[in-house]
Every structure is written in C-alpha cells, then in structure tokens.
Here is the input.
Amino acid sequence: MADKQVQTTFELSKLLNDIKEKASSNIIAAKNSEEIEFERVNYLGRKSELTFLLKQLKNLDLEAKKLIGAQANQLRQDINILLLKQEKKLQASELSQKLTTEEIDITLPGIKKLRGHLHPVTQMQRRAEDIFQSMGFQIVYPYELDDDAHIFSLINFPLGHPARDNWDTFSTIDGFMPIPHTSAMQNRVISTITPPVKVIIPGRCFRNEATDARHEHTFFQIEGVYVDKGIRLTDMLGTLKTFFTEFYERNIEVKFTPDFFPFVEPGGMMSLTCVLCHGKGCKVCKGSGWLEILGCGMIHPEVLKAANIDPDVFSGFAWGFGLERLMMMKYNIEDVRHFYNGNLKFLRQF
Amino acid sequence: MLISYKWLQKYLPDLNKFAPEAIAEALTISIAEVENIHKVRSGLKNIVVGEIIQIEKVPDSDHLNLCQVLTDQNNPKRTIICGASNVKEGMKVAVCLPGGFVVNPKDPNKFFEIKEINIKGILSSGMICSPCELGLTDVHLEILALEPELPVGMDLVPLLQDLIFEVENKALSHRSDCFSHLGIARELSAILKIKFDSQLLEEYPIIPAASLDYSIEINVPNELCPRFCAVALKDVEVKNSPFWLQAQLTAVGIRAINNIVDVTNYIMLDKGQPMHAYDYDKMAEKKLIVRTAKTKEKVNALDEKTYELNKTMVVISDAESVEDIAGIMGGAKTQITFATKNIILEAANWEMYNIRKTSRTLGVRSEAGTRFEKGLDPNFTMLGLKSAVKLISDITDAEIASTIYDHYPNPVLETIIDFDINLISRLIGIDLSKQQIIDTLKSLQFEILEETNSDDSNVNQVSQSQIKIKVPTFRRDIKIKQDLLEEVARLFGYQNLKPTLPLRDLTPVLQNQDTILFRKTQDILVGLGFDELLTYSFTNSNAVKKSNLEIKDYLEINNPLSPELALMRNSLLPNLLEKVKDNAKNFSNFQCFEIGRVIESEMTPDNLHEQPHKLCLVIYNSEAENLFTEIKGSWEILAQALNIQANYLNTENNWKFANMMHPKRVALIQCNNINLGFIGEIHPQVLQNWELKGRVAILEINLDQIIPLKLIAKAYQPLSPYQEVTRDLSLWFDRNTKYADIIKEINSLNNSLIKEINLVDIFYLPENTSEKSITLRLSLQSQEKTLTDKEINETTDNIIKVLETKLKAKLRT
Here is the structure.
C-alpha cells in the first residue's frame, strides 16, 4: 500500500484520463445492448478500474481528494452519458432496421379462424321474436305432433269439415298429426292465459304436398294471437303493419282481402307493399306492387268459446305467416329446399 | 273455378259498364281472389254460318269435295274445297272466310289465317271448320254440323269468344252458393251496386204431356238425403248440343258430350245444382232406390272405372245395380248415349260430410262432389231441376212424362239473427250509419225485419241499434252475428279500413325460459365454431338402421310423402349423420349442431307424445384419432355457461344407443342425478354403414331437462391480493385409474388452498403396460396471506399421500 501512496495526484489524473479515452472508444464501438451492458460493467461496475481508483481516494490528502474526486465523478457522469447516447443511437438504428426489414404483404389472408353460423331460419326467427316481444307479445312454442282436437276441432274445424282438405295433413299410425299450422297451439294459449292474451307461436309446420323449388313439406310459421276487450279488425291491420315496418325497416302498407279460414271471422289474406319494388310493381309481385304474405282474421267466436272466453266480452285477432318465403325474398334464394338440406356451403353464407 | 264474363251478363245486364280488370279486382277485394283472366278463343275472326248447297268431287282427287257454300243471303255462293267425309248437301256449317282466323289444331293457343288458295286449279275461298278449329275440343274430328235453325251468315265468333275469370276456390270453401254463375253474379251485383236480373230464377211450370212409369224409394235417413227430386222425359232426341251451349260449356273448360249431359252440366255451372240423368229404358224395373251401399258392393262408373263401396256411402240403384254414387258420379249402364230415348232427370241434396267422406275414401273428385261437400241449399234443388227441364224442352222435342217427384221432409227455413249494429265499430273499427249497414245487407239479399224507426222518440238507444235479419237459405255460411260483420266489412271494402293499434298496458313481457336457453346455447356453439343446421322432423328406416338404432322407437307416418320421410324422428342423429355424409364430400372436418324436437313413445299427462327439445353436437374429422376429448372440450364450455356440473358415467348394455356409439368412447352425462344425454364417438360399424372415412363425435342432450334443474351460477369469489403459486405433480397410476377418481380424492382433502387442478400430460412407457404417468398442475392460493414454502409443501405432500394410499399412486422421480 505504501507504494501506491506515492502515486501523485498527477498520475491519478492521468489514469482517469486514460480510462476516459478507452471508455469513449469502446462504448462507441458497442454494437448492441449486450455490448453496452458489458461496457457499463467494465467501466462502472464493482470491479472496474474507476471503482478501484475511487476506493483509493480516502488515502489522499484533502486537496488531492477534492481534485481527483471531482474528476472521477465527472468521468463517471461522462461514461454514463456516453453509454446512454450509444444506447439511444443503437435503439434508433435497431428501430430503423426493424422498420426497413419487417415489411410484409398486407394483402395476405388472415390465419383461418373457426366461426359458426346461426341457421338463417333461426336468425329470421329471432328477429321476428324480438320485434314482437318489444311490442308486448310473449313467446310460446308449439308441439310438433298434436291431436285432432287442438289442430282442428277446438279451433272450429269440425270433424269432416271440407276446409280440413286444404290443410294437407300427415298423420301417424296412432292418430296424431304433425301440426299443419301453429294454430294448433291457439286453444291452449287462449284457455290458459287470462286476457289480455298477447302471444306469438313460432314453430315448424308440416303439409303433405310435393316439394319443389317453391314448396316444402316442412316450413317455419309464426302465429300470433291477441285477445282482449275491444279488439278490432283495424287493430290487427295496425299491429301487423307496425311489425312489418319494423321488420323491413321501411314503411310497409298492408292490404286485407277476404279468404276463408274456419278459425277466423272475418278472415282473409294480408298483402304487404312489395319489399322488392316498394310497391311499384315487379316480377316477384307480378306487377301488382303487393305480396300476399299471411292469413289472418278476427278469432271466430267458436274458437273463443272453446277456450272458455266469452265472445260477447272479448274479441281478438290471429295470424300466421311463413318465414322461409320472407327469407327467400330478402336474400334472393332460388330454392326453398336449401333450408333443410343441411349443406354447409349454403349455411355458411348467412 | 272458371267464371264466364258472358254468362254473368245474363244476370247482370249492366256488367259491361265495368272493365274485366275492375270486375276481377272487385271480386278479389270483396270475396275471393281472381287469379287470372283468360281470353278464350280470342284470335278467332270471320267465322259465320254457311249452308252447303252443292257438293261435287274435285277432279283428280279421291277425297276432296268441291262445295258450293252460301255464307251470305245477298251474295253468291262461294267455292270451298273440303276434305272431310261428313259433308252433306243442305248441312249448316261454320265457315271461316278468307282473312279470318281459326284455332291452330297443333297448338290451341295459336291461330292461323285462312286465305284464298288454289287447290288443283280451283280457288277455294274459305274453310269449313271442325270443332277443333273452332276451339270446342282438342280432339281431331270431322267438320262440325250446326243445328239447321241457325241463319246463314250469322257471326259465330261472339258465341265462341269469352273472358274467363279464374277464381280461387279455397276462399269459397264456406260459400257453396258461389260455386255457380248465379252466385258470383249475386255477389257482383252487391259489390258493384248494379242491377241483378232475377228473371232466370223464376220456376218453369211442369205440366206432363206424356207418361212413363217409375218408382222411387228413399231408404236412407233424411239427414243423409235432405231432398230428392226427379222427373221423367219422353222421346228425347239425344244429339250434340246446340252451338251456343257447346261454346259456352267449353269456354269454362267443360267438355261437350251430348245435349242431355250438357244441360245437366250447364245447370250445375249456372245455378250451382248438380244433377244426373238416367237412361230410363236401361233401368231395371224402372226403379230408383236411394240406399246405402252394401259392403264391397261394386259400381261401374261413368269414368269407366269400377269402385268398391262401403256401408257408409249413399248410392242410387235400380232394381239390380248401383247407378249413381250419390252426389259424386253416375253409373255406366244407365248413362245417356246417342241411343237414349227416355230419361229420368234427378236433382237431389246430400249431406256434405258424408259426400266428402265418400269422395275421399274412393279418391274421386268431381264437379258435383265439390259442390255437395260444401253444403248446398235444398231450396234450390227444385229450381235446378225445373231449369234443366225447361232447357231440354227448349232444345229438344222431349215431352215431360211425369209430375215432379219431390222428397223434402224437413224444409229448410231462413235463419233470423239479432244484430247490434254497434258491433261494426266495436269489432271492425269503422263507423257506418244504420242505413249504410241495412243497405249493404239488403244488397246481398238479406231481409231486414222489424226495422225500428229512428224518428220514434219512444225507442231507446239500445233498440235503435238492434236489427233483426232474415238470412236467405242459400247463405248457409251465415249463422251468427260475426258472420254478418264480415258481410258488411267486406262490402264496405277492407281497403278502406284505417290501421289502429290496440291499447295495452305496460306490463313487461313474460320471458320464455326456453328462448333464453336456446339462444344462449346457440350463441356459445356458434362462438365455438359450430354451424347450426336444421334437418327434417321426418326420417326413414334406412337412416335409422344405418345408425344401428331400433325402428320400433320411431313413430310411423300413415301417409308419408315418400319412404324417405316415413318416420317421426326419435333422435336428431340419423338425419344429422346423413348430413355429415353429404358434407364430408366437401369438407375434411367440420362441426355442426341442431336443436329440435324429437318424438318419444312415452305420453304426457294430456295424452300427447313426449316431444322434448334435443341438442345435438356433431364433429367430423377425417384425420383425428380422438374426437372424444375434442367434443368434450366444446361441451365443457357450454356446460359451464349453462351452470351444468356434469358427471360422466359408463353406459349400460341395454342402452338405446349402445350399438350406435363406440363402446370404449361413450359416456352418459348426468347432472344432479338426472340423465341429460350422452357424449362420445360414433361406432366404427356405423361409420362404415354410412361410408364415412373419418371419425364422428357427437353429443345429444335433452334441453327440456335443464330448466327444471334450476341451475345457478357459482357465487363470486373475491380476488386474492396474494401471489398464486403453481406446482406440477407427476405420479404413476394404475392404467385403469380414472381421472375423475384422482380429482375426487384430491377434492376429498377439502383444502381451501387448492384453487385449480389441471391435467398437463399423460404418458405411457412401452415397457410398462400396467401403469400410466399423469402430470397435474396445481394452482395454490390463499385469501389471507402469501403462502410459505412450508404450507405449499404440506399441501402437495397431502395430495401425494392421499393418492398413494387411496389409488396406489407412486411419485414419479
């Protein structure tokens, strides 16, 4: 230790200058963050020359201590700044390096992800359900296989009535029928809910008719039933006009023309402003500007009576329409059989 | 139903004030849709009555005739070459003059022009027409012989041309009175407010001038045969109908046969009353017996078919055989032929339901049956019969040979309905004056009884609004006041109604729990990449068999559209497997699902088949070796969302789906000890049956069982501020040890520090056939403090200990 004591202030100062020179050249030569880290340890670390020198300051006299101490601290700051500068410089070049080399073809497709699809019938069903629910209608689902009483007798189709022929029913060997209309649920709905009855009945229906591009033996119908005091035919027109206006997001006019259904009196068909030509007349509406969409009418008093509702006090209306036709028009679908044939190429388009 | 514009004009002299389109629109708006307006024989031109004065052979021809034909009294005869063999001198024929048009026999919708042409050096100036060229038939016949009374030069085109309204029948199912020109005319007179000429409804007096003996027995209850009328006609000359009648019938699509049959058809279309004529001379013992058929009794009918009858069917027979299936079709033996001399003409009224049943049982649809099964007014039976007698008398020299037989035990009287005119505003939503309502009802031939005088101050408000209405008997559809409402409303014009909205309270809509469940299920599955598809509710024995399922569980349809649709589905799977097969042609892997009802053999308390909503998931992959865990992963996400804590159990041997599912890769799903359904891979045998190359994993659960379980979401766990630590444990287990048992043992420790246990890895050593290694990852965390090494090690040691003692596990080192 005694030898080292002889080191003069001058020598020490020179030593610090040497360190400074070496450090600046080495730090500037550092090519990445690892090398910078290495230089930091090398020049400022616990085992560095500078640390060693600083430890020796205590042996100097006060004046030299002041002088060399200040120089050493200055050096430490300088090295820190050098390191920082070099670091910044490297970061900047790394960044520009990244930006120049990381160019990709942004028109490449994304990585394939799986997405499922709701069946278009379900999508349309939900839309109709949501609108009707917002208008105060409760949802009740029908049975798929029901008895003669509910399908016909209780809604004023007596046994043997010729109107039954128009319903083209299937029957099972034990005497039940796949429902030909959602009206099969009407009696249960009217007889179990205390008026006001505001119910929609969405469900599958079945008709024994040959299938082709426009006809399916299976179709999805939405029935509606409204029973209360003072319900009028004009209320039915208004309710359905409101629904379809909401459904098509555009003003829809309705037209009621007479037709015969035993469960309604008066009964008829309702036509809507053609949604394709906005009523101007086109191929789909055969130039009339109207599309015949649903059967409806004032619920027949016999139907109310069969559900223990006094027709002199209460009145109501009911309707039924098929979803598939609305969808075929909306999407220009050419063949109704697509809906139930389960082809994913069809279903994945919705 | 086809309705002739010209025919309507007989009842409605002012109809020509309306364009055909306006008439069609009026009918559509107020009674039934006119689907089409056809122009009949619209291209015909310049066809007149001609008389063949002289016939010579055309030189150098073996069949051509050189006819001198008079077509205009004031002009010379014209020369026409005609190839028909039935030309005769003195014959009245239809001649198409040069420049005129006839129907193209090759295409009845086209017409061709007749020009003067040179045939073998002779100028032929016109054509003598066959019925086919006039559009009276599509059968190729020789030239048409007109009745001699027709004047030479008379223009035949107006008789042939017509406008036909095609009216949709369905809307008239309850309006038996509208299945005739009379009925539609009556409606139009009310709708268009034009005069209805009732002259044609006057009954023609029947005065016998000759006599034929016959007897009639009615051996069925009056309900089945409310009315039966008959009359005999002598010396009827059966021949072709006069030209106007043939033209009129064919215009509405009815074939002209002979004058008697044509008259019965004409009266049916005119007045709506079907009738039948029997050849008197062929009737055994000159008897008409109305009776029910004997079991398996046969009838040879007019359509040249033989029908086997049963005891519920009403027939009319002579002493030997059935000669008419009442209200539906006549018999062959006594049908009217050109040889017939004497006839019995019959008009009756039959009970509608019985007619419909007979017609459906025999599979015979006829114009008469269509009318009877709607329920005809028996008060019109006689009008029909008398009108037919009048028409036959007009066009033949027949003599009336008996008084009219009339069996009408219970005459139908008019219904009286008390009607409160306020109902119109209360139920329809329009305000009409009392006078407007009364006028409307009167225009439809309703009679107003006891009209209260509104000037009478003694009459109170209530009675002022009451009217008594007498309903004409032909309006069998009008029974109650609501029926009258429709009459007023439709004539007021539905197009004039202003839409209103019902007043309703603000009670929130009762939510359907099924809707919520179905939607949640669908949304989660769609999010997991499943496509929803819908299959028919019908399936078939082939699909059921291929799926190794039992046909006996599938309810049979009596009248399927095709054998592919002959069963009600008992499971969604057979149809879905069929769709898997179809889609496997296009996709090497896919996942789909369906929610739908299936039909069970068990019955509900209200005696319907149980028909629960089932959910079925299907995953197809042409390469994967294990789809079980794949589908289970999807199911676990769904189950978690639906708060289902599922247990997985082995299936039993007699299980319904045992042969359909892979025996080593199937499990029943239970929740709260309720069987929800099952999950697993399809049996390789079934895959072979369906010729599927890849594996199929499925899940079928009963969605209807979930809501009653009242499952609730797990309570919220406050987040711990302390560090969570994970430890992996690898142990050797016996190969048959179930993962669920390992978890059960760990859970039995009831250690609240264990937050989660996850499976990291399972592996088998080839040389070790009895064991497997399982690595578990434990997540440990305390709500109160940071865990110390000591506490962590204590927990893992306890786990190891319980697995070692209970499941003979060994820590892997």
